[in-house]
Design goal:
alpha/beta, globular, 7-stranded mixed β-sheet, 30 strands, binds 5'-O-[(S)-ethoxy(hydroxy)phosphoryl]adenosine, disordered C terminus, about 30% helix
Length: about 675
């Protein structure tokens, strides 16, 4: 069925670039790159430094567990640090850090690290991990830090000695942390006494202490002092990071380990349709190769650029495009702590002006957040330095695209929406301003990058025509694809490679227009994207049912003007328990403490039954349809039709209450 998606398929914008190429021409080049994708990616891998060349470009003897550049040896830290510290870039600034400004307008703390500085610091931390904590190849450490320079330094130091790290987003709550530490079998955890966020203090060490109460493998805890250091320390287990580091000789040097291409660099947990978060294991050689390619093609990174990715390093975007990608390319990157709207909604515009940002990577939620405050706070600052910009994490609505392109980019910048996932390692669908740039369209993701054979299939695996919605798949392996799910290779096969045999199934709906542009429409499974952050409805439901009054819960995502999507819950209480606002509050604090504030429920509806299939599976699709007011569709497998009416009634009743309250308040 052809669908009119009311997307601006025909609205074409030509950026100022001498690399503009017609989509048909692009497709021809792209076809060539895909036809012989092994040779193609081999050519890219040759552009980075290896200690030893690979024996095989792609070992696909055990699909879908692919080994890229098998037999090759390299070190990710060497690529990001040593190579530059030993070159003309030694005194070039690698990282500019800006802390959260004080509410009273006091001086903003900043730090600049050259590649030479980074080399010194990374070596000392590697020395500490190796010689004080006796960590080496294959050991795992957990990192729960805010956006401070110690975070990338520790990641690089771990990579230097083959220690696998798992970064836990500093917005996560205790249960989410415990789960990750236990599954990864982390021996050491590095955290901070606290962090600043929008003028408030986040007590990271306190949250970590709660998480550690149930952790089974952690022996040691290192605490970075970001605040006043007034926290409880557990004897024998906890030490101050700066005190231990002070004992390391100033000129300590640790040789980078010669890692095999397929050796894991890190594990990053991400949410899926069902079950606990899955630890995606990223390799070294393939991962660094896709980052090298995309830093150049997608970001067109140049030696004189100031580059800023406003993500948090706790998510994959920060791993790939704050730490490893830009540093490998020797770029000068900005890292900031805080919030886009604190102390005022012009914080980001002010950063762009003060540092002269040329290349900017952010999220649709951030853009919509700016839009909400009007143009004035952007216009107060000079944003002319921006040449190129991309967004990531969720579909960008055409209005937000047009606003940013016009108000911040003065209608001259190149602007795209890069599609990728934690699992993919790097960007796979995007405009390529650094290589061959097809004209832009507000809201599209552009075309698959070179070497990536993407397609859109229907339920039966048939390729969809232009204008027909289907499931996004990638038909060939690529460097950067996750090696496996930690501790659960079967799951890796099942989740990504079983729906369409031989293809990577992304879990996203997509549609293509007649020029071949991809438009990613959103998740086709039970994953929701709240402000671009990936959350599984199952995890939220598991947290809710921990409340002693709750019997069952179903969480769905509903559209939100700024955050894209927000979670709402439909809850069945235990017999004898009564719905109340205080119960709503208790349930929400449970979510905040266990998963984190990002997962806060927008609304909670109490019902006595939920729409389920005859095999007792909750039909979230039906609930979502009721809440979004769209047709409910096929309900032949529904067990109890009356449950739909109940969900509807609970929803309308609560909405009614809400509008009454709002009327009273105003
Ligand atoms: C969504 C983030 C539309 C998508 C790097 C994907 C996007 C999920 C885009 C992965 C985009 C990411 N346009 N949707 N430009 N980028 N997504 O693992 O649903 O946090 O499956 O990785 O984000 O989220 P993850």
């Amino acid at each position: 069925m052809a669908v009119n998606w009311s997307l601006p398929f025909e609205e074409v914008i030509y950026p100022e670039s001498d690399r503009i190429i017609d989509p048909k021409e692009y497709s021809k080049l792209h076809d060539l790159s895909v036809k012989n994708y092994r040779k193609f990616w081999e050519g890219i891998a040759k552009e980075i430094d290896w200690y030893e060349p690979w024996k095989k470009v792609l070992d696909d003897s055990n699909p879908p567990f692919y080994k890229w550049f098998a037999g090759g040896k390299l070190n990710a830290c060497y690529l990001c640090v040593d190579r530059h510290a030993n070159s003309w870039r030694k005194n070039k600034v690698a990282l500019i850090w800006e802390g959260e400004p004080y509410a009273d307008g006091g001086p903003v703390e900043t730090r600049k690290l050259t590649f030479g500085d980074l080399y010194g610091e990374v070596n000392r931390v590697a020395y500490m991990l190796k010689n004080v904590y006796k960590l080496g190849r294959g050991d795992v450490i957990g990192i729960y830090l805010p956006m401070v320079t110690e975070l990338p330094i520790i990641m690089l130091a771990a990579a230097r000695i083959g220690v696998v790290f798992t970064v836990i987003f500093s917005g996560f709550g205790a249960d989410a942390i415990t789960e990750r530490l236990n599954d990864s079998r982390a021996k050491l955890v590095i955290t901070a006494d606290g962090a600043w966020r929008a003028g408030k203090i986040i007590p990271l060490k306190g949250i970590m202490d709660k998480a550690l109460a149930k952790a089974t493998t952690v022996r040691d805890v290192l605490v970075v002092k970001r605040l006043d250091g007034k926290i409880g320390m557990t004897r024998k287990r906890d030490s101050w990071y700066h005190e231990i580091l002070a004992k390391v000789p100033a000129n300590a040097r640790i040789e980078p380990e010669r890692m095999r291409s397929e050796d894991p660099l890190y594990i990053l947990y991400t949410s899926g349709t069902t079950g606990k978060p899955k630890g995606q294991v990223h390799d070294t050689g393939g991962y660094m190769t896709i980052l090298h390619a995309t830093m150049n093609w997608v970001f067109d990174i140049r030696p004189e650029d100031t580059y800023w990715c406003s993500a948090d390093i706790g998510w994959v975007t920060g791993h790939s495009y704050i730490v490893f990608g830009p540093l490998m390319e020797g770029a000068t990157g900005i890292m900031y702590e805080g919030s886009p709207i604190f102390p005022g909604p012009d914080r980001w515009a002010s950063i762009i002006e003060r540092y002269g940002v040329n290349v900017f990577y952010t999220s649709p939620t951030a853009i919509r957040g700016w839009m909400k405050f009007g143009d004035e706070h952007v216009k107060k600052h000079n944003t002319d330095s921006i040449r190129l910009m991309h967004s990531v994490g969720e579909p960008i609505n055409p209005e937000a695209f047009r606003w940013f392109h016009g108000v911040v980019g003065k209608n001259k910048i190149t602007f795209g929406s890069t599609w990728w996932m934690t699992e993919t390692g790097g960007i796979l669908i995007s405009h390529l301003p650094g290589k061959a740039l097809v004209p832009m369209k507000p809201g599209t993701n552009g075309l698959p990058i070179m070497g990536i054979d993407a397609d859109i299939l229907d339920e039966d695996g048939k390729s969809q025509k232009a204008g027909e919605r289907g499931f996004l798949v990638i038909k060939n392996p690529w460097p950067g694809l996750s090696l496996t799910i930690h501790n659960n290779p079967e799951r890796f096969k099942e989740v990504y490679f079983s729906k369409f045999p031989g293809c990577y199934y992304a879990g996203d709906y997509a549609v293509r227009d007649k020029d071949g542009y991809f438009w990613i429409l959103g998740r086709s499974d039970e994953v929701i994207k709240v402000a671009g952050h990936r959350l599984g409805t199952y995890e939220l439901e598991s947290a809710i049912v921990q409340h002693s009054c709750v019997s069952e819960a179903a969480v769905v995502g509903v559209a939100d003007e700024v955050k894209g999507e927000v979670p709402v819950a439909f809850i069945i209480l235990k017999v004898g328990k009564k719905p109340s606002d205080s119960l709503r509050k208790e349930i929400n604090s449970l979510i905040r403490e266990n998963i984190g504030p990002i997962a806060s429920l927008k609304d909670i509806y109490f019902v006595t039954r939920l729409p389920k299939t005859r095999s007792a599976k909750i039909m979230r699709r039906v609930i979502r349809a009721v809440v979004s007011g769209v047709p409910i569709g096929d309900i032949t497998s529904l067990e109890d039709e009356a449950s739909i009416n109940e969900v509807k009634a609970a929803y309308l009743e609560f909405r009614g209450e809400l509008s009454l309250k709002t009327a009273q308040q105003s």
